[in-house]
Design goal:
With about 425 residues, the protein is α/β, with parallel strands linked by helices. About 35% of the residues lie in helices and about 15% in strands. It has 19 helices and 13 strands. The relative contact order is 0.14. It binds iron/sulfur cluster (2 copies). One iron/sulfur cluster binds next to helix 18.
Length: about 425
């Protein structure tokens, strides 16, 4: 049976002020779960899977993160930590995701600490085939743990939400690679060990198609809050129009008795038909399907990690071939961006207020674009969504150039 204490909420939001308003009032309904002591250590774990920002559908929206931090600070909690262990390739390439997604600037502004879980003190957990992996201790030791996943499609796992987001709790590249020896079962193994108290799903701009990094953004405008990651993931599958049986780790969870029929019934009754918006599924080729077959992954990953092969697969040429074959999605651009300046081209602006809807810091836009405001963290959300291209960005764009070019065509649809 679904736990009687279980809670789940679905918010439909548009724009920063509505996100803040609805999140605040809904979180008040969960306030009895929060620690009594205001000294409590609260860990926030967004999905910072790559340096593609939230508007691409890839990573957690800074609007939710900022709203949550303000809520918690408003309740007197001051020991807040943002923690994430970004995915393997970025870790290997030593690319700082916290800085590229402006998490560091956001954290500095609010006086919140950050921790890269890839380098955090760790403890051992058991994976399939008797493999031992290490997970960041803080995920179990924090007094309160809030999981902040993105709702997106995933070319291996079908979908990535609450359960899959826990992969970021694994410490460093070798431990993440161990998870891939039996990805779906190890997602469940990980979630038996690491159990956030609350899940807040960012479904504002979701990703459909070949997620998590090669899909396309979709303006879904939802936030889900809940206490059971299985039920929240099932509800997300309903919202996305996916059959849970196509999400291997949910199917395995049901077969293994971790969840039961009552979970399915509850998720069906919780998500009413009109809310469902069918997301395009990942369209993977035969090679990706072949290599990710449950039971076979273990052997492929073993070969992949054998000393000679491991060096070979880390070369640029192998990276390109993996991208072309669909086995790897991320592109690792080494060039950082500079301290970019944004400004308003007043004659181009028609006061549509879209920039204000997307500003995580709730600045009074477009007015506050006329002079540099200290609260601006430089995230460029306003620049990316402006339909008139009335916001100018100057400086060294580095890795952002490719992202801006790639997502320019979605500007009008966000
Ligand atoms: S989004 Fe662009 S056009 Fe609209 S108010 Fe902002 S700056 Fe002006
Ligand atoms: S003004 Fe623009 S760049 Fe600055 S915080 Fe707001 S959305 Fe980000």
């Amino acid at each position: 049976m679904v736990n009687n204490n279980f809670r789940i909420s679905l918010l439909r939001c548009k724009g920063t002020s509505q996100i803040r308003e609805k999140l605040n009032s809904e979180l008040d309904r969960y306030s009895d779960l929060f620690p009594l002591s205001k000294e409590a250590k609260i860990l926030l774990k967004p999905n910072l899977n790559s340096y593609m920002n939230a508007l691409t559908g890839n990573t957690t929206d800074l609007r939710i993160l900022a709203a949550l931090i303000e809520y918690l600070k408003g309740k007197g909690y001051h020991n807040l930590i943002i923690g994430e262990g970004t995915s393997s390739g970025f870790y290997r390439e030593k690319i700082n995701i916290f800085s590229r997604l402006y998490i560091d600037k956001l954290a500095t502004f609010y006086g919140v600490k950050t921790i890269d879980l890839n380098y955090a003190p760790s403890e051992e957990i058991e994976f399939e085939y008797g493999v031992k992996a290490r997970v960041a201790k803080i995920c179990r030791e924090a007094d309160f743990f809030i999981n902040l996943p993105k709702l997106k499609t995933h070319f291996e796992a079908g979908m990535s939400v609450c359960l899959k987001n826990m992969l970021g709790a694994l410490v460093g590249l070798p431990n993440k690679q161990k998870a891939h020896r039996s990805l779906f079962k190890n997602i469940l193994n990980l979630n038996k060990h690491v159990r956030p108290h609350l899940h807040i799903v960012d479904g504002l701009i979701a990703m459909e198609g070949n997620g998590p990094s090669s899909g396309t953004p979709l303006n879904l405008g939802v936030i889900l809050i809940g206490t059971d990651p299985y039920l929240v993931d099932l509800a997300c599958a309903r919202i996305a129009g996916f059959d849970y049986r196509d999400i291997p780790y949910l199917k395995i969870a049901l077969d293994a008795g971790i969840i039961n029929e009552s979970y399915l019934k509850y998720s069906e009754s919780f998500v009413p038909e009109p809310v469902i918006r069918k997301l395009r599924k990942p369209n993977v080729n035969w090679l990706v399907r072949f290599i990710n077959k449950p039971g076979w992954q273990h052997y492929f990953v073993k070969i992949r990690l054998a000393p000679g092969f491991n060096r070979l697969f880390s070369t640029k040429l192998a990276g390109k071939l993996l991208n072309i074959s669909g086995l790897r999605q991320d592109v690792f651009i080494k060039e950082d961006a500079g301290d970019n300046r944004i400004s308003l081209i007043e004659q181009e602006c028609d006061n549509c207020m879209k920039c204000a809807d997307y500003c995580p810091m709730a600045l009074s836009l477009p007015q506050q674009l006329k002079e540099r405001d200290d609260r601006c963290i430089g995230c460029l959300y306003c620049f990316l969504v402006c339909p008139q291209k009335a916001i100018k960005v100057e400086g060294k764009l580095g890795y952002l150039s490719e992202q801006i070019k790639r997502y320019d065509k979605f500007r009008g649809s966000l």
